[in-house]
Write a structure and sequence with these properties.
284 residues; alpha+beta; 24% strand; 3 domains; Ubiquitin-like (UB roll); 6 helices; five-stranded mixed sheet; single chain
Length: 284
């Protein structure tokens, strides 16, 4: 029996994948379609379907991606420009009967009013009840960050998390210089205005600029930017020392120095796409 060598395998891979298109030499019986859904804002990744599959089989496959029961689906085939071409109503017909092409779309209309995707339940996390622990219950826990932090502060009133991390790395901790200029970073703040979309370092945390200013009691000297994050990646609800500066849910607000803020075209991103890098010392 003859076995394929490394060069043979590489040649086969190059033939199947092709030089540029990813799967240039795909089977002629398949088609690559984008999937959209009546109840979902997200546009699903392209799905490769067999032209010989019945519409019923296509619906079953789409049900695993959309959560819609096949019996509640109405499928519409659209061209690259989004123009409807055909209603795929006959479950017994083959997908190829409708002559779909790569780049076309299949729109799934969910006719079930009790569907799990209705009303944004599969996308809008604000609709999901979240567990909240009271301060009293949290204080009863034997091992918690709050208790550990208080223990460290009792030993060293100047303790900070940054100082602790430097100690664990075996390096000398150098505290950031105290800002004494009330106009600190004014040159950077002038280019940031309320209402702009932004990205905040570290971690490319996306959000909207809600406040730009200085001289607020509870904030160190210099200019600061108030941000309402798209995800709960902040430290507060837009308040400083109990004073409400802007509206934000708890954990969605934060105040950062202007040098940590980039403004421009920064749309919301997938909350699972990036790992949180941690918060810096120049953030409140």
């Amino acid at each position: 029996m003859a076995f394929m060598g490394r060069e043979d395998l590489e040649s086969l891979k190059a033939y199947v994948a092709g030089p540029n298109s990813g799967f240039a030499n795909k089977a002629d019986s398949t088609v690559l379609l984008s999937i959209t859904h009546s109840n979902l804002k997200a546009r699903f990744m392209e799905i490769r379907l067999d032209m010989h599959s019945t519409i019923e089989a296509v619906k079953v496959k789409l049900s695993f991606h959309t959560g819609t029961n096949p019996s509640a689906m109405l499928l519409t085939l659209l061209d690259e420009a989004g123009t409807p071409l055909a209603q795929l109503c006959d479950d017994s017909k083959k997908l190829g009967f409708y002559s779909p092409r790569d780049g076309y779309s299949l729109h799934v209309q969910d006719t079930d009013p009790t569907s799990a995707s209705a009303g944004g339940w599969l996308e809008d996390t604000s609709l999901v009840a979240k567990y909240k622990m009271s301060d009293e219950d949290y204080d009863k826990r034997e091992k918690s960050y709050r208790k550990w932090k208080n223990e460290q502060l009792a030993k060293d009133p100047s303790w900070t998390l940054e100082k602790e991390m430097a100690k664990r790395r075996g390096v000398e901790y150098v505290a950031p210089p105290k800002v004494e200029d009330p106009e600190h970073m004014a040159d950077l703040a002038v280019g940031i205005t309320v209402g702009q979309r932004c990205s905040v370092d570290p971690g490319d945390r996306r959000g909207e600029v809600m406040w730009v200013g200085r001289g607020l009691e509870g904030l160190p000297l210099g200019w600061w930017v108030g941000v309402r994050y798209d995800e709960p990646l902040g430290r507060n609800d837009g308040s400083v020392k109990g004073k409400k500066v802007f509206e934000a849910p708890q954990g969605y607000g934060g105040f950062v120095r202007p040098d940590k803020v980039k403004v421009g075209d920064f749309p919301p991103i997938d909350e699972f796409a990036e790992e949180e890098e941690g918060l810096g010392a120049d953030e409140i």
